[in-house]
Amino acid sequence: MDRIGKGRALRPAIAVAAALAALALCAAAKVELPQHAPVPAARPQPPGAAPVPSPRPQTEAPSATTSEAPPAGVMPAEERACRERLRALGVAFEERERLSDPEAGCLVAYPVAVTALGPAISLAPEAVMNCAMAEAAARFAAGTISPEAERAFGSPLAAVAQASAYVCRNRHGQSKISEHALGNALDISALRLKDGTEIAVHAYGPDDLRRTDFIRTLRTKACGPFKTVLGPGSDADHALHLHLDLQQRRRGGTFCQ
């Protein structure tokens, strides 16, 4: 096999390894830092020196990102209601500033950055998307992936690794804007179960029928809650992840392969 052939053969293995490595981020411990650094003691002033004014008490700066409900009127009622549903589902998220690129056609008016799809289901790396997509992903993770994992492997879902959420770009090989550019899509590259079992998304074939059947089941059940479902076997661009999006089609149609 020539060098080019070897490189192509390695790509799937490298991508799978990267997906599994992303799962390790879900288990990273938080480091608690003090909110304010200690203030050093004032040095004695030499005779005749001008008095130094006492420092003003520190006030808490407003956070640039927060999962607290924004003031009424800042965003549409449905966006506020969506965030209440996220909190009820146990989704860990923070608000993000409006994402907009008029020339490219990319826009997420009220994005959220999600780090957990439920109280016991982490998401890594952090995924920026619109609230509707975050809610759909959370419901799918808790209501479909986790029970199906327990049925197939005897352990519930603990972590999701994502390969792409918001990205300002067109569809691969097309001039049409991608649903990722609207914060309306999520690509799942791997899953980790509570017992440590790891399931990378790719075509296992007859070598691992349990994983093959599990991924096929997820794809089948995702079609409906999501309007587009693509994965291994759909095309080369989706060979190593499960693409889910909420693209609206005529008469509520779906595109699932």
Shape, principal axes of CA atoms: globular
Structural class: alpha+beta
> Helicity, in percent?
25-40%
CATH class: Alpha Beta
CATH architectural arrangement = 2-Layer Sandwich
Short characterization:
This protein is an alpha+beta fold and 257 residues long. Helix content is 29%, strand content 21%.
Kindly describe this structure.
The protein has 4 helices and 11 strands, in the order H-H-E-E-E-E-E-H-E-E-E-H-E-E-E. With 257 residues, the protein is α+β, with helices and mostly antiparallel strands. The chain has a single domain, classed as Muramoyl-pentapeptide Carboxypeptidase, domain 2 (2-Layer Sandwich), CATH 3.30.1380. Strands 1, 4, 5, 6, 7, 8, 9, 10 and 11 form a 9-stranded mixed sheet that branches. A hairpin with a 4-residue loop joins strand 2 and strand 3 (106-108). The two termini are 32 Å apart. Residues 1-11 and 29-70 have low confidence and may be disordered.
Distinctive features:
single chain; 257 residues; alpha+beta; Muramoyl-pentapeptide Carboxypeptidase, domain 2; two-stranded antiparallel sheet; 4 helices
List strands and helices in order, with pairings:
Layout: H1 3-26, H2 77-89, E1 92-95, E2 99-101, E3 106-108, E4 112-118, E5 121-129, H3 131-153, E6 157-164, E7 185-193, E8 198-200, H4 209-222, E9 228-230, E10 242-245, E11 255-256
Parallel strand pairs: 5-6, 9-11
Antiparallel strand pairs: 1-4, 2-3, 4-5, 6-7, 7-8, 7-10, 9-10
Helix pairs in contact: 2-3, 3-4
